[in-house]
What we know:
The chain is of the alpha/beta class. Helix content is about 35%, strand content about 15%.
Amino acid sequence: MKKTGAQILCESLIEEGVDVMFGFPGGVLLPFYDTLPQYPQIRHILVRHEQGAAHAADGYARATGKVGVCMATSGPGATNLVTGIANAYLDSSPIVALTGQVARPFIGKDAFQEIDITGITLPITKHSYVAMEAGSLSGIVKEAFYLARTGRPGPVLIDLPKDVQEEQAELHHPGKLNLPGYKIPTKGHPMQIKSAARLINEAQRPLIVAGRGVIISRASAELKQFAETGQIPVITTLLGVGSFPENHVLSYGMAGMHGSGYANKALENTDLLIAIGMRFDDRITGKVSAFAPHARIVHIDLDPAEIGKNVRVDVPIVGDVKAVLQAMHEVIDAGEHIEWIKQLDEWRKQHPLTDIKDSAGLLPQYIIRQLYEATGGEAIIVTGVGQHQMWAAQHYFFNEPNNFISSGGLGTMGFGLPASMGAKVGRPEKTVWCIDGDGSLQMTIQELATLVQDNIAVKIAVMNNGYLGMVRQWQDLFYDKRYVATPLSCPDFVKIAEAYRIPGLRVTRREEVKAAIEQAMEHDGPFLIDFMVEPEENVFPMVPPGAAIAEFIEEPKKEVSTWPRQSTP
């Protein structure tokens, strides 16, 4: 029996396990939306802006490990997806973006709302398709989901002309995929693994830096076993947070521009750096010529394009992180690096990161620590981009993967609210907190309406300092406090929330924080807290632009309250 292209699309999505999608309709998508009620297995969540759909699909993918799906109409609907697609591409997040297109006879004729979305997104997708026949849709969908989830995950786009959705064709379930040229490395070369093991066994000051690839590969248990056997300290990238439990004795936290001083000192002094599932982004290397100057480097990554791209590598291993760690564990010796670990512990005392200073005003660090205490460290934390993002990574402790969701490579303001929405839809049993800034939140604030319409119980903590805080911080430190275009006029976020029928509170004093968080968590729907924090509080440590990673600026010495890092998690 023949089916329409829209029916074939729906059935193909169901075949791939899709049970939810985030979208916004338009004229060229009406055949699909008219068909959608025939398939109640697919929950459609109506966002208020297409960028929100892409970020929600991204948050869903990161929280669940499944492929997230978003949809937008042709023209401006499709272009509004671009930022979210780019964000997913840079952070290796598996999403499939479905875009409407004008009918086939009008393609290339500048028809109303026609845009070459496959051309626009060519550099930021793993692959793109234009479905020119209804009969090809099932095969295209199968390939798209396979590409999105396998290898180094990422976004794939399918463009859907209107008349293809209406055209009738036989539904042929595709068989085994044949994708010549798409080869996924798996186990890693045995000789390279042996070479790496030899360096590990000889090293006096080995150090692991774990990135998001560990999480993608579901290799946290293998990383923990590997580190414990070798007695090798572990630091992480921003997106590697949670790949190794932060309450572990071998955990030395996040490194990089706003990483801990002791993690950055470890990078400067290690004699063997074992980089696992990370890409040596400039935010963790600092001045590349001064990066890990005494170290041999072993780099394990699934993507061969990343190896040797930014830093020299002594032993490259191309393969799946999980498989490589399992193989490497078999050939390394049981290690003991007592003096090296003592040195790291001494640096931790000299350069404390997680102490919270006393202050007359309300500090974001204190609020985030209270969130950690209230949730027992079990919540999914989703952030926007800016100072609040760094404070969240520093002061909430993550002992499991996929509990910290943030925009790393693209640094997308506005990511937090829609991504938290996707995370909560994907993991409804989890408490989800969106930690956002007053600038970042206003970029996608309209998604509050989506939370209400679909009863998505995200809790929102706004760090409201009246500035575009991270840019202001750079102006403070490097531009003689010339605050140009960073003072920020904000609405009354509590009234805004209430206008969307979301309860809200404003907190101005330290002693109000705990009760406000508890009230938010007791409420069974979305809830917003507007925290009026210190306007000119800065994130420290900070590596200045162009400096070596160990040349970090620390906060001027002040009295601190007793929050010892080792005993908190």
